[in-house]
Write a structure and sequence with these properties.
The protein is of the alpha/beta class. The chain contains 21 helices and 14 strands.
């Protein structure tokens, strides 16, 4: 086996040398010679140049990327093969001052409107706005937040009974080859104490509100008192962010204040840097849809566990994080609802992560569950600067859905149709239904240089994550999954010019989107360009690097992160394999 690995290594090294010779000229591209029009309305399909890597080949590539000089060389080659230099070329043609992130600004008139709408929520409470609207006729029934509230109110069941059933189901569903692998940490004693306290409040009629006694799980990347923050790695929790040093992030504080039972932590793609949800350390979560003895499918990531515990019916909502679709992708692939809020809308006090593109948000069984949990966790907090310009939380017009004739949605046909046939067909059918049944107005739009915008986002998110991992790279890079090593190594090859250029491009597209939203209210796209990818046996143990699939999963989601815009994914149907489709 060692001889084979050695032979493979030298073959790969030879290939890299040849590749270097082939792309040598591209390594020194004259960006001024590139014909890039900042206002181009032509949609260009992104073509990723990278093979699918698994097993020994993936491990060898990972070793190569960690090797000084060789790793740097290969990373630069990969960047240039995928034309990352186009970001600098576009930026060079922009006469604009770059900004590092989007700062929401409201006019006085808009702020007054928000404050008036918020008074209804503050005065009458969430129950006056959100009512049971589900008409689910399928055999499988999701228990929504309102189901728990009504069951507790009528004393049909208690929070303590609920959490014991969850314990039982988690234990049963996390065994064997088809283990869901969603839940990573549970403190049984702590959860039982929370449930007993909720029991007592309901018994005395002193419940804290609609979420009192409702169970929820939290993504591994978010700080929760009493739990390690592992970030999905082997080393991050115990050595870097142990339970003894963790305090609840703001959103968890607010959930506890509302009486939510925090059940524990759930799985994540390692350090949140992946779209499949694969994790070589805690097991890869399985998509609850089409889980059989012979076929398994990815959940999407990085908030993989957050989507699974909702999609499998364990809890009605969970918390995730989204810096590049990490809430919306798994929500779509698992057939549930996922919301990435406006940048800074859900405040955070954590000192690590992708700070300029990432946001915390809920994944829920229904839109109601997402709306309720969002209304609790969102809003200004003095310790979170990015939240300070936010208006008060409201659910204005939440039930005003009989006719949407004052709503205009923007559709970029070429963009939407750059997806699997089943997805583009379902998306177009839903758009037509909105127009026909709800009187929504449709406006055809274009967004310039989407393929370069995607690369600009990749530069931003990976450079921020690489910066966070810098102090761990030397001592712990060998403990990271091979696919994450590949991503971080490419990020480490980026220059200050690349990051500065991405910031200029970002400022440009933010201003473009601000103009675009003067004529439309929403942009509708598929959530992903493909449904849940199959989890093959050769990838279960060590994972895989498949940048083609990654790009398909991120194709429609990155823009909201890059521009700081809110975006929600809702399920609209299934493909030919009965795998969920989201828009």
């Amino acid at each position: 086996k060692k001889k084979k690995m050695s032979k493979n290594f030298w073959i790969l090294l030879s290939v890299c040398i040849v590749l270097f010779a082939v792309v040598h000229q591209k390594l020194n591209v004259d960006i001024n010679s590139l014909d890039i029009d900042p206002d181009s309305e032509i949609y260009v399909q992104t073509k990723i140049v990278a093979p699918r890597l698994v097993g020994i080949n993936l491990e060898l590539i990972s070793l190569m990327f960690r090797t000084p000089i060789i790793g740097d060389l290969v990373a630069v080659i990969m960047s240039n093969l995928n034309k990352f230099y186009e970001v600098r070329a576009l930026a060079a043609k922009l006469d604009i001052v770059p900004s590092s992130f989007m700062i929401p600004r409201l006019s006085d008139e808009e702020l007054i409107k928000h404050e008036a709408a918020a008074k209804d929520l503050q005065t009458n409470g969430i129950l006056s706005i959100v009512t049971k609207t589900s008409n689910n006729k399928s055999k499988f029934h999701y228990w929504e937040i309102l189901d728990y509230y009504n069951a507790y109110k009528t004393q049909q069941i208690t929070p303590s009974q609920v959490i014991e059933e969850i314990f039982r189901f988690v234990n049963e569903s996390h065994q064997g080859e088809n283990s869901l692998n969603a839940v990573t940490q549970m403190n049984y004693e702590n959860v039982r104490r929370q449930a007993k306290e909720s029991d007592q409040r309901w018994k005395e009629g002193k419940q804290l509100g609609i979420l009192d006694g409702v169970p929820s799980f939290i993504k591994e990347t978010l700080d929760v008192t009493g739990y390690d923050t592992t970030f999905g790695t082997k080393f991050f929790g115990k050595k870097t962010a142990p339970a003894s040093t963790r305090i609840d992030n703001i959103s968890i504080q607010r959930l506890r204040k509302a009486g939510t039972i925090i059940m524990g932590k759930v799985n994540s793609h390692e350090i949140g840097m992946g779209t499949t949800g694969h994790n070589p350390h805690y097991g890869t979560p399985k998509n609850p849809h089409q889980l059989t003895k012979t076929r398994r499918f990815y959940t999407g990531g990085s908030s993989s566990g957050s989507a699974v515990v909702v999609a499998s019916g364990i809890v009605p909502f969970s918390l995730g994080g989204d810096a590049g679709g990490s809430i919306r992708v798994p929500a779509s692939l698992c057939g549930v609802v996922g919301l990435k809020p406006t940048y800074g809308r859900v405040p955070s006090i954590q000192q690590y992560g992708t700070w300029s593109v990432g946001d915390g948000g809920p994944i829920g069984a229904t839109v109601n569950d997402v709306a309720i949990s969002y209304s609790i966790i969102a809003g200004v907090h003095e310790q979170s600067l990015s939240s300070m310009n936010q208006p008060p939380v409201n659910l204005d017009r939440y039930n005003d859905i009989e006719s949407l004739n004052d709503i205009t949605i923007g559709i970029f046909d070429e963009y939407n149709n750059d997806s699997d046939l089943s997805i583009s067909k379902a998306t177009n059918e839903m758009i037509n239904l909105l127009a026909k049944n709800k009187n929504v107005r449709i406006k055809k739009i274009t967004i310039p240089n989407l393929n370069i915008l995607a690369k600009s986002h990749i530069i931003t998110i990976t450079s921020e994550m690489s910066a966070m991992m810098e102090k761990y790279w030397k001592d712990h890079s060998h403990e990271l999954g091979a696919d994450v090593v590949v991503t971080l190594a490419i990020a480490r090859s980026l220059t200050a010019l690349d990051v500065h250029a991405a910031s200029k491009v970002r400022t440009f597209i933010i201003k473009y989107m601000q103009k675009l939203f003067k004529d439309i209210d929403f942009i509708v796209t598929p959530t992903t360009a493909t449904t849940a990818p199959e989890l093959f046996d050769d990838a279960i143990e060590k994972g895989e690097s498949n940048l083609v699939v990654t790009q398909k999963l991120m194709r429609f989601v990155f823009l909201a992160n890059f521009c700081g815009l809110p975006a929600i994914s809702v399920p609209i149907g299934y493909d030919e394999n009965n795998l969920p489709i989201g828009i």
